[in-house]
Amino acid sequence: MENSEPTFRDETLLLVTAGNGGDGCVSFYREKFVTHGGPDGGDGGDGGSVVLRADEHENSLFRLARMSQISAQNGANGGSKNCFGKAGQDTVVAVPVGTQIFDAEHGNLLADLTLTGQEIVVAAGGRGGRGNARFASSTQQTPIRSEDGHAGEVRRLRLELKLMADVGIVGLPNAGKSTLLRKLTSARPRVGAYPFTTLHPSLGVMQGRGHGGSLVLADIPGLIEGAAEGRGLGLRFLRHVERTRLLLHLVDCSTGAADPAESFRVVRQEIARYAPELAERPVLVAATKVEDEESAEQASALERALAREPGAPPVLRISAATGRGVTELADRLFALAARPAPAGREEGPASRRPKA
Question: 19, 20, 77, 195 - which has most CB atoms within 10 Å?
Answer without folding.
Answer: 19
